[in-house]
Structures are given as C-alpha cells and as structure tokens.
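In the laboratory, one determines a bound structure by crystallizing the protein with its ligand and collecting diffraction data. In a computational setting the workflow is compressed into a single prediction: the sequence and the ligand go in, and a structural description comes out. We illustrate the idea with heme C.
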Amino acid sequence: MTVSRILPLLLFASVAHAEPPWGKVDLQAAPELHQKACAGCHIRMYGGDGSKMYTRDGRMLSTQLELLQRVGACNAQMNAGWFPEEEGTVAAWLNQRYYRFEN
Ligand code: HEC
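The predicted complex, in structure-token form:
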C-alpha cells in the first residue's frame, strides 16, 4: 500500500475516535425505551421521575464509555433485550440530559 492510501485511513481512524462510543444515534426512541425498561426501578429508589439516579452525588460514572457500559450492564441484568443500537440511543440521551460527558 502506498502512503496516499494509508493516510486517509489514519485520518478516518482519528476522526472516528473523536466520536462518542455510541456513534450516530437517533435520540427519538430513547425516552420511551427508558420509560419502559429503566425508570420504574430508579423511581422506586429515588422517587420523583427517578432522574436523581443520574444526578446524585458520588455517581459512579465519569466517561461516555462508562455510561454506555453501564446502560449495557443494566440492560443485560434486566433482560430488556435491547439491541446495541438501543443501548447507544439511551446512553446518548442520558448523556445529553444529565451527564454531559465530553468524552
Ligand atoms: C431493578 C432495578 C433497576 C432497573 C430496572 C434499572 N436500573 Fe439502573 N440502576 C439500578 C441501581 C440499583 C443502580 C445503582 C447501582 C449502584 O449504586 O451501585 C443503577 C444505576 C444506574 C446508572 C448509573 C447511575 C450513576 O451512578 O451515575 C445508570 C446509567 C443506569 N442505572 C441506567 C439504567 C438503564 C439504562 C436501565 C434500563 C435498561 C436501568 N438502569 C434499569 C437499578 C436498576
């Protein structure tokens, strides 16, 4: 392979790296998915709309990737049966609303 062929690949890799781990997702489906599979339990714990789970002091997460992994873990635990895209959608939505992790 020539350099002119490798260079675009390297550029692509660095750009891809700057993207969030969930890639491009459509946030529209997130509120309903979250409401169905996730909110009830957090509400039982914290009351209100349960969102205190995501804003509490000493929360466990500090990066986008950890957030995505946590969503995946909760999904697996719940047997919600979400596809990876759905985990990504909900993680992105939680980040936009609550966490605001930049990376
Ligand atoms: C059966 C109850 C239950 C259900 C259902 C549930 N969770 Fe959780 N979730 C918890 C508990 C308990 C914790 C806190 C764990 C801890 O403090 O160690 C938690 C923590 C979290 C956190 C981390 C909060 C923080 O500290 O910042 C996220 C994110 C999260 N849940 C997302 C989800 C998502 C997404 C779903 C739906 C797929 C879901 N949860 C469903 C019980 C639940």
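The CA atoms of residues 63 and 97 lie 15 Å apart. Keep in mind that any predicted model is a hypothesis to be tested, not a measurement.
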